[in-house]
Every structure is written in structure tokens, then in C-alpha cells.
Amino acid sequence: MDSSLVIVVLLTFLFSSQAYVSSGMEVPQRGPVVPTTPLLAFLERVQETAFQVLGGERGFDFKSYIDMSLKFNLSHTQKVFDGLPRRANGGVPVQEFRKFVAQYFDDAGSDLLLHEPVDFVAEPDGFLPKVKNQKVRAWALEVHSLWKNLSRKESDEVHKHPELHTLLPLPEPSIVPGSGYRELYYWDSYWVIRGLLASKMYETAKSIVTNLLYLLDTYGHVLNGARVYYTNRSQPPLLSSMVYEIYKRTHDTEFAEKALPALIKEHRFWTSGEHNVNVHDAKAGKHSLSRYYAMWNKPRPESAIFDKDSAANISNASEKQQFYREVASAAESGWDFSSRWMRNASDFTTMSTTSILPVDLNVYLLKLELDIINLAHTTGEDTVAEIFSKLSKAREEAIRCVFWNPQKGQWFDYRLHDNNDGSSHSHAWKGSQQNQNAFASNFIPLWIDLFHSDTTLVEQVMQSLETSGLVRTAGIATSLENSGQQWDFPNGWAPLQHMIVEGLVRSGSHKAKSLAEEITVRWINSNYAAYKKTGKMHEKMDVETCGQFGGGGESVIPQLSSLLPNAKQSSNPVAEMARSIILLTFLLLSSSLLLSSRASTMGVLQSGTVIPTTPLVEFLVRVQETAFQTLGGEKGFDPKWFVDVSLKFNLSHTQKVFDGLPRKADGVVPVQEFRRFVAEQFDDAGSDLVAHEPVDFVAEPDGFLPMVLNPKVRVWALEVHSLWKNLSRKVSDHVHKYPELHTLLPLPEPVIIPGSRFREVYYWDSYWVIRGLLASKMYDTAKSIVINLIYLLDTYGHVLNGARAYYTNRSQPPLLSSMVYEIYNRTGDVEFAQKALPALIKEHKFWTSGEHNVAVLDAKNTNHSLSRYFAMWNEPRPESAIFDKESAANISGASKKQQFYREVASAAETGWDFSTRWMGNNSDFTTMSTTSILPVDLNVYLLKVELDITSLARATGEETIAKSFSKLSEARQEAIRCVFWNAEKGQWFDYRLYDDDDDDSSHPHTWKGSNQNQHAFASNFVPLWIDLFHSDTTFVEQVTQSLEGSGLVRAAGIATSSEKSGQQWDFPNGWAPLQHMISEGLGRSGSHKARSFAEEIATRWINSNYGAYNKTSSMHEKLDVEACGDFGGGGEYVPQTGFGWSNGVVLALLEEFGWPHDKNFGC
């Protein structure tokens, strides 16, 4: 039969079927069920037994048990299975079951063999021609190379003995998604083909289509996947799109001609029988639309245990069957599963997929009709083209009348809520039945020309998309409902990103194209970051956090894959997802973004990790933003308060209440409504910590500050000492019991907090707190702080900036070893030192590897390894999100904004947040460039870490470690001398990485003297703090002279810088840590001059602290060094009191230098 005759026959069936359904007659065999096979029924029994026997094991995968192949015939294998010994409860002993499986089955996946694609070349001619950036290009070629890992052909055994396999024999090789998805899948294949076309692998693309056509011809529809258990459902109808894309690239008319009859046949499948539903619109116009409707009413074999468990509380047999059909129909949608198909997002049994007319399905069918028109014209089938032209116009009108909502600027799914949801009668359209919840599917119509060719419409929809809440940090969220289902928030999926982006890009709107490019950059960045972290491409991504893969759903372990080619996948379902390789197409779409050869052009080029925050933090940032809109004008408004509150109820409930708050026309919540919401839903910031009496506190310890002889100073020092009681806290029991309700992290021991808004323990503050505690003889409290910091290090891989969930993505200056060393020095506690040593080595690795590590070639061509600050974050800091967003408001381009946010977070990691020290232009905060600076002080702290580890290792008998770190310290000491020291100026200067086109840490930077930042900062003198630099008297006196001449030493202490910028780590502020390190270094040198100068600085600082305390009855976070007794200002928050490190430094300086009877005290 030639193709024209086939087409005529198919069209006859098509229109007789549609007329039949439209007539209102009852469709025969309502709710069809396609039978399964005896093999499958048996394997389900094996799956169930496996779950009874092994279900508690990590990584247990239902699907692997029905993907196994029999070694012997079914009858024999069943007999052996039925004869297995069983316990009283019917369970088979584990060893017996394992033996049975090993003897009678070949592993899941063994029925497919690795296949080298015939058209694969390592770098195809014309591959991504507009991608000029070499780093992006290298990664794209790595992604391209994954096709080899995912290419399979069926074993000869499958063709020879199909009855032993659930895998269906196919005529051509395929590309599989990866991991537990070992076979060809339908809708995945569209995006696989788009990637293959970018890779110039046209023959492989055609092979996939040939296989899908084979399934369509054999079973009457394209199966969900190429397994016998998928014969009862399809997936979104994208076959025509595959054919059309291949035809556009190859102009293979013969290929198009052969495919055309199959496409018409598929159209009939989707537009007749139970898939077809009629709707009368508001003007009585009648529209034929389609829905998902699986031909199955039992548990899905691949997830039978999961389905049975879900249906356990459904008692009625017919209701159970209907539930199973709804679940299978949701699987047919490709969105398995989502609150989109559920009447109640928290109740999986309310699945009602067949009662929904989906926007996207009908858009795919419109695309099918348009593709058939184009292919029919191409192959000379004008009658076919004419018929499908009428059908496409009718469906376009149906989509407009039933789904489009002009007020919202979106297309919404339509729920069939009236009495009968069958297809045999027409449903009356009601606006209230549009599902107006935010789903990415609401924007899928943009994908096709008919909807994206109208610029006005596109810009209306684009605006709606921007305000929908779906566009997130790392891509488009699938929905806003955090239901735990994988096709819901916070997951993003490659197909949805692609269709929406492609539609926006191909519209005539510049605004839409700009938004599309931004989404593209976010998605590519996130995939790249995840790939760099794991060496794998992932099935889905968490769009809340760049570089974080998604989760949720019935497959607990996210699907991804290693680069190692292996036809037999591990039982742990991790394999690369072919759908993700749509990135190659994204790279084509975003070509205008990729023309620069600078590695800093896109975030994708930053190898910087991004550590995800939590859903709670993300929600509280939204609350913070609303609070600022509503209350921001109030005096004392503090954004941090809103991310430090604790939930009274679960997050899902609180989010729903928040989303339901009334809003004015401008979106602002009325003040009283917002205040009521906060009072009812949250406990106050700080309520998660409770006051704690330190076990080792006494009002006047024995041996307290023996060198303080002046009675007035001594009385005040005891008052400062007593403040430890005010600042001592322990984490509340509620935090330990319900950590998900708090941003505070549970810690094992009590803490000393800085004070005021700083309600939690902080990393580098703790060093000076501990120095004060040691002066106060509170050794146990000091040890408790270290135990907490080691706990954070063990839990998160680094010591966090502070003990809040929003601080997990950055650290602070590495002073843990100094804390341990000081405690050991005072207590001689070898066991304490021994326990801490592995943690100190772990922290050293964190700071000296990855993005923190930078190599510099000095003037003599010697390579030095040094470190920099580099936060694992590229979004606004949650505790100051409104400030960061405002600062970034005039930065255009998503990647530049992300880099700015990383620079800001990295500046916070330095502890100097913020200072002109980190800025390219002192008057422009957006020139923050922290990651392009090698800081003097950070590298001095790391030298101290190496020296401390050497000393502690020797003290605990770890000679090998001591030798190793002694060598490291020698190398760093030399690096500090060669890169930072300036002999002419007598100071150590920060080094700016100006010499390269990018800030990549993987290659050495060539040292240039002009790259030293010769501005006056107190950090230029921090090396004095450690013995190696203050033990040479001549050297120390040179540096002392430089400090005296720098202009930094003022009336009330050492200024942080000489630049009056308004930032708090600039002039005229002085900070306790800087006074202490410089004074202690000078004081412990062998120089009398330096000791005298150190005492003078310490005296000025102590007097100023006392003066401020006398005026305000408080200790202050920072002081104004221009005037004795004045506290400091500037920065993003009001001056704070308390204050942990200020108290500690006063006590430490008094311990070091004392205070004679006759010395004046006060301002």
C-alpha cells in the first residue's frame, strides 16, 4: 500500500472516529485496559517478595525487579520461585532469595549493550559555532561525549527469546535517559534528539524516530517506554516535533514521507475515544480537546508496591481501580507526580488526572497538527495539509476559549468538575474551573509560533511569568507547591526550561528575549555547577540553588550518572540523564551570551560551588521582603530579625497562610494584617536560644588579671568579666526536637554570643571571646565553644560564619587552631588537643584547595600557593537580602548579578563586611571584588594554622603530621614574603589578581609589584601577630616605624583604614581584633620600642572602651578611634552592644599589659 493510500485510509478512520465521539453516543469499551503479560505478572510477585525481604536496604529499587531477564523459561522459574522456603509470615529468607535471583535472572540492564553511535565524532564540524568561550566550549564537548555512554542496542537474546524479557525488541539502537531508566522513553526522546542535532548526529536521531514509529505501528500508540509494562499508556505526543526538527536539519523528504502516516495515526489515538473531551464555551461554541487517559486500572508494575501502599486506605474496589488509572494517567503526562493532578496537594489519593484538560497536552497536539501540515506540504500531500489546517485552527480557538485567561496573562488547565467527567458528552465551560495555581505548564503555549509571533501577547505573558514566582535563582520552578512530589517546587526540569525559553527567544520581543537569556544562563550555570561537583548530569535541578540537583517523588535518590561508561548500572540509581543534554540546544539558543572569550562573562565559567540554603530560609527571605515593603520605613527595621524567627507551625501551613494574606493593588500587605500574621505564625528572633549560667563562672576568679593593680580598672574589669553570664546561651530543646522550624542550627554545647542582633555563635568572634574566657579562668566554657565549632566543621565540611542555616555557604577567618592552641597552652589538656587535631587538618584542606587556593609565580619564577576568600553562594545574603538586591539593582545581566552577590558574600566571609579594601572603586559598592584579592591576613591565619598543627601534632606524638605541616608553614612563610611584603614601605600588602582575563585558580598568576594594594589598612600589620614575624627585632622596628607613619594610629586606637567611605570596616572605626593582634605582636617582640608602642595602643583602646561603657553602660562592637569613648558607626546595621569580642580583647590586653596603680584611667 503506498503512503497516499495509507493516509486516505487513516483520515477516513480519523474523521469517522471524531464524528462518532462528537455525536454524543456512548464510546464503546469505556475505560479500556490493555492486558499485561504472564512474565510481567510473575515479576511483580518477585518484586513484592523482594520488598518484603530487602525493602529496608538503602537504594532499594522496585523497577529493577521487573527489568530483569529470565535465564530459563517462565514455567520453570515460577516453579522454583513457588518452592522457595518461607517463614511463618510468608517471607523468604534473605540468603535464599538472593541465591534464587542470582541463579534465575540476569541483571536489570543486561538486555541492553553499549553501542558506539555510527555518527559520533569527538568534535563535529560546525559544532556550536557561536560558542566562542573556550571554557564553555570544553564543557559542551564533555556533555556531547555523554552520547556514547547513553547509546545502547538490544542484545541478540532479546530478539531471539523475547518471552524471557520485559524489554521490547526494537529495530535500531537508542539513546537511554540513564540510571534506572534503562530503555528508550517517548517524550525524553524529543530533547535527546534536539541535543543530537546540535551534535550533528543525524543518523542516531533518525534511529530513535524509527524505533518510536515501530512501537506506534505495533501497539497503535507510542509507548511510554520500550518495556512490556508500558504498553497501556503513552507520553506527551512529540513524535511529530522530532520528525519536523530532523527534517529541518536534513531536508530528508523520504524520511518525512515515511513518517507522515504514523503521525496521522498518532493524532487519531490522542483525539478519539477516552482521550477526547468536548467543551461548550461561554458563547456555546463547541470545542474538542484532549486529556491523559491510561488504559490501565491496576498498580503500575514498575512501582506496584508504591501504588498499593498509596491505595491502602481506599476500601472500595472500583474506587481503587479508578485511583490506579489516575496514577497511570499522571505517569502518561510525564509529570509523575505533581499537585497539578491532585485535588488536595497533601493527599496523593485525590489524584484526578483524567478529570483535567491539560494546557500543554493540547499545545502538543496543536503542534502535531501544524507539523503534519508542514510535512504534508513538503511531501506533496496537499489534501492532508488542508484537513489538518482546519483542525489546527479549531484547536487554536479551543485553547483560546477554554485555557486562556487574559486577566492573568496565562493559559490554565481546565478541571472537569461537572457530574460526569466522561468524553461522551459536552461539558459546559465555567471560568471557576480553570486551575489558576502557578505551574510552568501555564506558559508552554509560548513554545509554538502561533502564540509567540504576537509581540503584545508575548510581553503580557512574559510579565505574568516574571511575577508568577516561578522564575527562581537557578531556573523556572515546576510549580509553587512544595508537596514533596518531584514535579513540584523546588524542582526544575530541562523540558520546561527549554520550551519556555525557546518560545521567548523566538518571539519578536526584545524584552522576552532578554528574559529568556537570563533563564538560560541560570539553568546552564546550575547544570555546570552540579556537573563540576558530581561529575554527572542530573535528571532535575533544585531551582532555588545554583548547582543543586532536585529531589522528591517515588525515586528517593535523584537520577544522575557518572562519566564511566557501563551498560550495567549500579543498584544505586545514579546515571546521567539524557534529557539534561538539552543543554547543547540551550547553548545554541543563548549564543549571544557566549561570544566573549573572557572567562568571567558567565557564571557557568565560575567553578565556584554554591551550597544550597533551606526551604525555610527561602521562605523567610520572602517574609523579610514583605516586611520591608510593609514596615521598612520604621526606625530600627532589621532584615536579619525576619530570618531569625522560628515557626510555630510547619512550613507548608505557614506558607499557605502567608500566600493568602490580603494585598493592596501594589502588592503590599496592610500593616495590621502583616503584624497579626507575624505574631500568630512566628516566635520572636532569639527565642530559640535560652539564657545559660556558665558552669565555671565565679564572680572573682582566683588569679584574675594579676597585673591589674589599679582598683578602678580592676572593678571595671570584673564588670566586664560578669558580662559572660549575660552572653551565655544554650540552644533550646525545641530546636533539637524540631530543627525544621528554626534557622538556628542545633549545637551540642552552650555558647557565648556576641550580643544584640548577633544572637548565635560566630566563628572568628569566638577566638577573642575565648581569649577573654581564658583570662576569666573559664576553661570549660572555652572548650565548649571549640566543641561547637568542630561540630559545625564535621557536619558541613567547614566552620560556618555563624550557627544559622543561612551561613552554611561561607566561613570566616580560620582561627580554630588558635583557639585550640590557646586552650591547650593554658590547660595542658593533651586529650583535648588530640581530639581537635583531625578537625584542624580538615579545615586546613578546606582553605587550601578548590576555589580558595590560588597559585602565584613570583619575580624569580617560583610558584607559591596562597589562599583567598571565596563564598559558596551567588545570591543575596538571606540576612540582608533586601540590601543586597538594592545594591545590585543597577547591575544588568543575571551572571554579573550572581558574581556581585558572590563578591558580597565573600566579603562577609572575610569578617571585614564591608570595606574599601575589597572594592575596585571606593565610592561604588558594586565594584566589590573580594575573590580577586589575596589577603595578607587570611594567609597569616593559615600560616598560624600550619604552625599550630605542627605544635599540637608534636604535643600529641604525631611526628609525621608535624613534619608535613612544618614544611607547609615554611612554604607559606616564603610565599607571604615574596607576594605580600614590601621592603620599601615596611608593610605587607594585599595582592590583587589583575594579570589574567579570569580569576581561575587552576593556573598560576604572574606576580607584579603594581598589583600590591598599597593603601593603608590595619591588615597590613597583622603578620606581626605571629612569632615568625615578630621575633626579629630589627625587622619589627622597621614595621613599627611604618605603622607609626601610616596615619592609622589615632587618639583612641588603630583605625581600620584611612578611607572614610561610610563602610564600617573603614575610617574612623577601630575594631577589637585588630587592636589585639597588632598590640600582642608588638608586645611580644624583643623590641622595647615596639613593646612601648604596643602598650600605648592598648591603653588608648582600653580607655576608649571604658569611656563608652561609662556613658552607655554597654560594651560596643566597634569604636570611633578619633575620639576616646565614642562608639563607631557606618555599615548596613545600627551599632551593636554586648559585646563578645570587645569584652574578650579588653580582658586579654589587661592580662598582657596590666595596669599600674598610678596610671591614669579613662578618657
Could you characterize the architecture of this molecule?
One of its GO terms (biological process) is trehalose catabolic process. The chain is mainly alpha-helical. The protein is built from 38 helices and 36 strands. A 3-stranded antiparallel β-sheet has the order 3-4-5.
Q: What's a quick, concise take on this entry?
A:
With 1163 residues, this protein is mainly α. Helix content is 45%, strand content 9%.
Describe how the helices and strands are arranged.
Blueprint: H1 3-22, H2 38-54, E1 69-70, H3 74-82, H4 94-104, E2 105-106, E3 112-114, H5 134-150, E4 151-154, H6 156-160, E5 174-175, H7 186-198, H8 202-219, H9 239-250, H10 253-270, E6 276-280, E7 286-290, H11 304-310, H12 317-333, E8 356-357, H13 359-378, H14 382-402, E9 404-405, E10 410-411, E11 414-415, E12 426-428, H15 449-452, H16 455-467, E13 471-472, E14 475-476, E15 491-493, H17 494-505, H18 510-534, E16 537-538, E17 540-542, E18 560-561, H19 583-589, H20 615-631, H21 641-644, E19 646-647, H22 651-659, H23 671-681, E20 682-683, E21 689-691, H24 711-727, E22 728-731, H25 733-737, E23 751-752, H26 765-775, H27 779-796, H28 816-827, H29 830-847, E24 853-857, E25 863-867, H30 881-887, H31 894-910, E26 919-921, E27 924-928, E28 933-934, H32 936-955, H33 959-979, E29 981-982, E30 987-988, E31 991-992, E32 1005-1006, H34 1027-1030, H35 1033-1045, E33 1049-1050, E34 1053-1054, E35 1069-1071, H36 1072-1083, H37 1088-1112, E36 1118-1120, H38 1140-1153
Parallel strand pairs: 6-12, 24-32
Antiparallel strand pairs: 1-2, 3-4, 4-5, 6-7, 8-11, 9-10, 13-14, 15-17, 16-18, 19-20, 21-22, 22-23, 24-25, 26-27, 28-31, 29-30, 33-34, 35-36
Helix pairs in contact: 1-10, 7-8, 7-9, 7-19, 8-9, 8-10, 9-10, 9-13, 10-13, 13-14, 17-18, 17-19, 18-19, 24-38, 26-27, 26-28, 26-38, 27-28, 27-29, 28-29, 28-32, 29-32, 32-33, 36-37, 36-38, 37-38
Protein name: Trehalase
EC number: 3.2.1.28
Catalytic activity: alpha,alpha-trehalose + H2O = alpha-D-glucose + beta-D-glucose
